[in-house]
């Protein structure tokens, strides 16, 4: 997605440890006009599929998932990273290791909001090693729901997540795939799609 790649080049900051900081428009401050274009693109990519739910993980995926859900006219469910008093009843649980936070979370989704009748599209802001996606896929399987595919805004193509998901037969669409980032020069190289 050319618009997204241009925005990453303009405002993205490459940090030590293969971290791409895009908090000025994607995952802290959110550019809703850009999100609308992202939503349109995911609708184009998955528009021929029947989708009943969008599933994401808190927190950075929620804003994007909400805009995407508007294009599909379906609800968003997000996996929480901790059980709280307002989640009652049975839940699906999966372990997720966060690349950014270097922490393992038990992510949970209430069984009230995901079941065997659902056709699920996963949405997230980043894909690096694929741990968040694998955790969400496990939750879809636990619910006996049908996984339609996964939509990622930015994929780090030089990390293993995307390749592993594609090899597993997941319909994965990434709007920008980065093949290389240089923290010294700030140069970002995108894969031709």
TrEMBL record:
The keyword Transmembrane does not apply. Belongs to the purine/pyrimidine phosphoribosyltransferase family. Xpt subfamily. The gene is xpt. It catalyses: XMP + diphosphate = xanthine + 5-phospho-alpha-D-ribose 1-diphosphate. This is Xanthine phosphoribosyltransferase. It is found in: Cytoplasm. CDD domains: PRTases_typeI. 5-phospho-alpha-D-ribose 1-diphosphate binds at residues 128-132. Converts the preformed base xanthine, a product of nucleic acid breakdown, to xanthosine 5'-monophosphate (XMP), so it can be reused for RNA or DNA synthesis. GO terms for cellular component: cytoplasm. Residues 36-157 form the Phosphoribosyltransferase domain. Keywords: Cytoplasm, Glycosyltransferase, Purine salvage, Transferase.
